[in-house]
Queue: 2 jobs
Job 1
Amino acid sequence: MTLAVDPARLWNRLHDLAAIGAYRDEHTGLMGVNRLALTDTDAAGRALVKRWFEEAGLAVRVDRIGNVYARRRGLDESLAPVVAGSHIDSVPTGGAFDGCLGVLGALEGVRALDDAGVVTRRPIELGFFTDEEGCRFGTDMLGSAVACGRIPLEVAWALRDRDGKTVKEELARIGFLGDAEERVAAPHAYVELHIEQGPVLAAEGFELGVVTGVQAISWQELTIVGKSAHAGTTPMHLRRDAGFAAARIHLHLHEMIESGRYGADMRATMGRIEPAPNRINVVPGRTVCTVDLRNPDDHAMAAAERELAAFVRALGDELQLAIETRQTARTASIAFSGDVQEVIARHMREAGVHHRRIQSGAGHDAQEFAAKCPTAMIFVPGEYDGISHNPREYSTLEACARGATTLLRTMVTLAS
Ligand code: GLV
Ligand code: MN
Ligand code: MN
């Protein structure tokens, strides 16, 4: 028997979920998704997917960091489960696929097992994890990091958004502060299906990717304090311009990359720059900005962080500014299990799917599970140069179904 997911059902679910938090992008007119973690829209998305889990006859539990698991019984309930999951929160300018494909693809896999009357030896657990994006509370992979033991529950609960609301308060407010134990016992294996979010697979004509690992990620928030002043009357040499300092840091990051000192794959982004008071004729007295560094090489990443810290110190002295740096997230480069990669690749070969190995540029819940059990991921190519964290994010029905069917077959092999 060849097991496969129902493409139309997967596609419909992806679109039903994307309708929650849907918004029209004011610049492009495209429909995007805004389901920032622990907001009312996230709560509505959670409720829908939880209901789908229940309708599939799965035993649902919510843990103390708001992760939601759904368990399908195995023939031997004493064995550790195979876990397949991802996230359903989004960046504020997201698309329909990031995270959701992995959760709904796994759900459709379980539905296909039901339709075929297959019971696996091991239980299968589906999961979606709290605030994978890290966009609201500052730390990505938050729920899976707590589940897998990297971040203590109390630390995660105490994180605050820009309005001062804590993770714990918001979990309680939206009704997802569960009582299940948040630390997972080691699963037998973990697999995650995800849209690639980059251009590689489509550009090279591949139908799917087997993910080899995830590069290191470093997030910092810089608060630069200078002196606000009049734009017309304050001579340039007397200014303590916090906005100018942010620009200098941003430029320096690009110089670091262009130098090649940190390898050809280093990336740096200043995604948030907030000068205050943010008015045309006022020198910014204060600027908050963020730095997102990525590097597949841990040593190169650490060296880049040191250079940035030294530059920021020297700049503060030069411009007479106080610059405070807060590390909000930091993960090392992760290598996925060769064995799980091989199970995935074998199913792709058997189905005649043109595939390649690929390292992930984005962070994923799988990187947390890699610390607990053999783990790997499946990538589905994206359209439009693989654009993601953007309303234009898109993959085809065929590609999504191909990825979900590979996930299904991988889950069955691992659970047998
Ligand atoms: C998660 O989406 C990331 O920032 O890589
Ligand atoms: Mn994601
Ligand atoms: Mn994302």
Job 2
Amino acid sequence: MFNVQSIREDFPILQTQVYGHPLVYLDNGATTQKPRQVVEAMVNQYYTANSNVHRGVHHLSTVATDMLEQSRETVRKFIHAASVDEIVFTRGTTEAVNLVASSFCQQEMQAGDEVIVSTMEHHSNIVPWQLQAERKGIVVKVIPMTDEGVLQMDAYEQLFTEKTKIVSVAHVSNVLGTVNPVAEIIRIAHTHGVPVLIDGAQSVPHMPVDVQALDADFYCFSGHKVYGPTGIGVLYGKREWLDRLPPYQGGGEMIGTVSFEKTTFNHLPYKFEAGTPDYVGATGLAAALDYVSAIGMDNIAAYEASLTQYALEQMAQIPGMRIFGPISASLTSQVDEYSSDNCQLSIVNCQLHRGSVISFLVGDIHHLDMGTLLDRLGIAVRTGHHCAEPLMHRLGIEGTVRASFGIYNTFEEIDAFVSGIKRVASMF
Ligand code: PMP
């Protein structure tokens, strides 16, 4: 059973006081806090098993190499990939998208060929394609969305031409919380023979993800958003695609043999891991995935859906409140307290409609003012365009205030957040 109090005890930073108030950390979409288990796993490796991996014959190097490969297996299991060869460690989601954009365009695209992204993408899933547009003359096409922040699937289907070579979309919007119908997006792309990259930065921390069930060709996420360390992330790629694509960066680890005349490349996944990998980061990421797996991704999705539903309910009662993203009728039913029954109900809502991200504005209060004044009450939210400027243009706004929830947030914290908004609003 989900026990939020015992989870909170694993996160020392949650004891922080901010301007005399207990910290209410609602910026999990930007990065999550780290449990002791993650930090200790990394410290232990530095204290007992630190050595560069893969080329060493000595004891410590063998131990560190085994740990890295065990971490890769933990990732494989977590997203249900078919093989560890399909798990590439990257610096994060951003590097993973850049890797695919660069290698895929080099091999598979000509000037005039098209990539389809959506209106609600993070800059990380726009700019890498634009760089390729400048370098190779590829064309970026955009799936439109409704005013409620739902992708228009009819329009999506109509974007395909014989020049469409790849689709790249977010699983969950980091601004709207929209859970995109990625299985359907992938199915439609495959009927056109087109592969799909899914940006899972905002989904992997919050719901079970099965890359084989989705039939995703590429899927990526960041360790630091799933209670792991910064500087490590994952690119999953189907073996057939990773085998076919050229390396992204050159250097140590990714080679077979090197001479000045000809270099051959290592087998998967090392072909895409140039240089010393962040093996201690991989240990921390595996510890984080073990941590959330022990709680259960279904339980996490259900709990966070209840929190989100409760927050939406409370926020909707504030005069002048404008919430961005899908608000379904089912989200207006009151959740008085957490129970597994409610959560079963909510998990359906969550998968259909939204993740645990709420972007909002109140009246004409500037998002920066709201964020700054909430901070004075100990409440950490993010303000601005959230690295999604094209989405802001679509919504006709400059920015929003964004609250994003994680496994350690409580209903009491939502109450503090809502009364904080009311207090700030009363000052204007
Ligand atoms: N995509 C989405 C949807 C995100 O929310 C983020 C992080 N805000 C990223 C990509 C980029 O992740 P990172 O900075 O960890 O590479």
